[in-house]
């Protein structure tokens, strides 16, 4: 079993692949905020860990009060870290100790204008990835952006993931696959209509 608290240690090194991946995710969170003029925006992060990507951006944004976010994370130690950082920053971010693989865990947190799936698709089976991508319109507000990551370690599932996003009604707006690392960061915008969160059910389980 992985220790998901210790998993965050490489973030201490700004040159680590994990830190590089996070900076790409954060760049797209910044772009999304800059593109959206609304005074109220909703964010949900699945398997959010310590929420460093979103909280790191909000810490630098004078307009952080526009954002209401829910971080869904299973490990209570990571939830506590995220909640403490959100309180320190004074931002409207709730870290929720819940199973992000269950649709019912997203009640009251969605529809979201930004959905973060960072560090999820590399830890679940291919069929769970397919099911999760197909269900993403159920977490989305109209025109929502989804930022996702996935390793390209062989067999590379990212071509299939990109096709599944297209089938689910998303348009790709960015895709980063740096040659010297195995991580990938993808960004998709929902161009089809969102779908209701109900009925409840399971999207994925961590392997
Ligand atoms: C690979 S880490 C990614 C963390 C964060 N998104 C990031 O990129 O820094 C995966 C996280 O998912 C959490 N996790 C595992 N299974 C989960 C589940 N069923 N529901 C919610 N979180 C889960 C782990 O505790 C861990 O913090």
What can you tell me about this protein's structure?
By secondary structure, the protein is of the alpha/beta class. It has one domain: 3-Layer(aba) Sandwich (Rossmann fold), CATH 3.40.50.150. Helix content is 29%, strand content 25%. The chain is built from 5 helices and 7 strands; from the N terminus they run H-E-H-E-H-E-E-H-E-H-E-E. The protein has helices spanning 17-35, 52-58, 76-89, 126-135, 158-167; strands spanning 41-46, 67-73, 92-97, 112-117, 140-151, 170-176, 183-190. Helix 1 packs across helix 2 and helix 4 (126-135) packs parallel to helix 5. The relative contact order is 0.16. The model has no long low-confidence stretch (mean pLDDT 98). S-adenosylmethionine binds next to strand 2.
Question: Key terms for this structure?
Answer:
binds S-adenosylmethionine, 29% helix, alpha/beta, Rossmann fold, 5 helices, 7-stranded mixed β-sheet, 25% strand, SAM-dependent_MTases_sf, 207 residues, MeTrfase_dom_put
């Amino acid at each position: 079993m992985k220790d998901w608290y210790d998993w965050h240690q490489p973030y201490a090194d700004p040159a680590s692949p994990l830190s590089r991946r996070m900076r790409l995710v954060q760049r797209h969170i910044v772009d999304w905020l800059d593109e959206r003029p609304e005074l109220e925006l909703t964010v949900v992060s699945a398997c959010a860990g310590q929420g460093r990507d979103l909280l790191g951006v909000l810490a630098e944004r004078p307009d952080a009060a526009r954002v209401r976010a829910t971080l869904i994370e299973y490990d209570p130690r990571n939830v506590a870290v995220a909640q403490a950082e959100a309180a320190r920053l004074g931002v409207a971010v709730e870290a929720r100790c819940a199973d992000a693989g269950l649709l019912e865990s997203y009640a009251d947190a969605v529809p979201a204008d930004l959905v973060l799936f960072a560090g999820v698709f590399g830890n679940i089976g291919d069929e769970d990835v397919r099911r999760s991508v197909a269900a993403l319109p159920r977490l989305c507000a109209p025109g929502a952006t989804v930022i996702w990551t996935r390793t390209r370690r062989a067999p590379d599932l990212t071509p299939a993931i990109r096709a599944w996003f297209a089938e689910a009604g998303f348009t790709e707006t960015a895709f980063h696959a740096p040659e010297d690392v195995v991580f990938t960061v993808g960004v998709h915008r929902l161009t089809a209509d969102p779908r209701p969160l109900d009925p409840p059910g399971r999207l994925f389980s961590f392997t």
